[in-house]
Design brief:
The chain has 147 residues and is α+β, with helices and mostly antiparallel strands. It has helices at residues 13-25, 31-51, 64-68, 79-83, 100-107, 129-146; strands spanning 4-8, 84-89, 92-97, 109-111, 117-119. The protein contains 6 helices and 5 strands; from the N terminus they run E-H-H-H-H-E-E-H-E-E-H. Strand 2 and strand 3 form a beta hairpin. Helix 1 packs parallel to helix 6. The longest helix has 21 residues, at 31-51. The model has no long low-confidence stretch (mean pLDDT 85).
């Protein structure tokens, strides 16, 4: 994915411990749980775009284009919205967009001709406490299903 991606080998210690338990218990690499996590995270991104919020729940800074036309930021034609996907990766799941401009919208920075346009960071993809809890629930459900 060349745009923006979240590779979930996970930085949360709690999630890492759940993943380690799954790896020991399931020689197939807890595929079902990783798919559920991928689907959940893609849904989170789409919900964030629909609700015009960032992954942490704060309001999304509106773009000048959305103010001028009126409409929603980053969602006028659904290209970015539809581009978020997940792929199973060794030991985790990768979630992201292959659109090159996804990165500038996620991280912010200078863009356009001569890099004269300042794009505000609008990270709709990320893992905060609510996402960690939901991912933990998915992993625990997978462990319980193995018993």
């Amino acid at each position: 994915m060349s745009g923006v991606a979240l590779r979930a080998g996970f930085s949360s210690e709690a999630i890492r411990l759940h993943l380690a338990r799954l790896a020991i218990a399931n020689s197939e690499g807890y595929t079902h749980a990783r798919k559920d996590i991928g689907e959940y995270m893609v849904g989170e991104v789409q919900d964030n775009l629909d609700g015009q919020k960032l992954f942490d729940g704060t309001a999304m800074p509106q773009s000048q284009a959305a103010i001028d036309r009126p409409g929603k930021t980053l969602i006028a034609k659904h290209h970015l919205y539809d581009s978020y996907v997940f792929q199973l990766a060794p030991g985790g799941v990768a979630i992201g967009s292959d659109l090159v401009y996804a990165a500038i919208h996620h991280f912010g920075g200078k863009a356009g001709r001569g890099r004269k346009t300042e794009i505000k960071a609008r990270p709709v993809l990320g893992v905060g406490a609510p996402q960690e809890r939901r991912i933990g629930d998915i992993l625990i459900a997978e462990i319980e299903a193995m018993q």
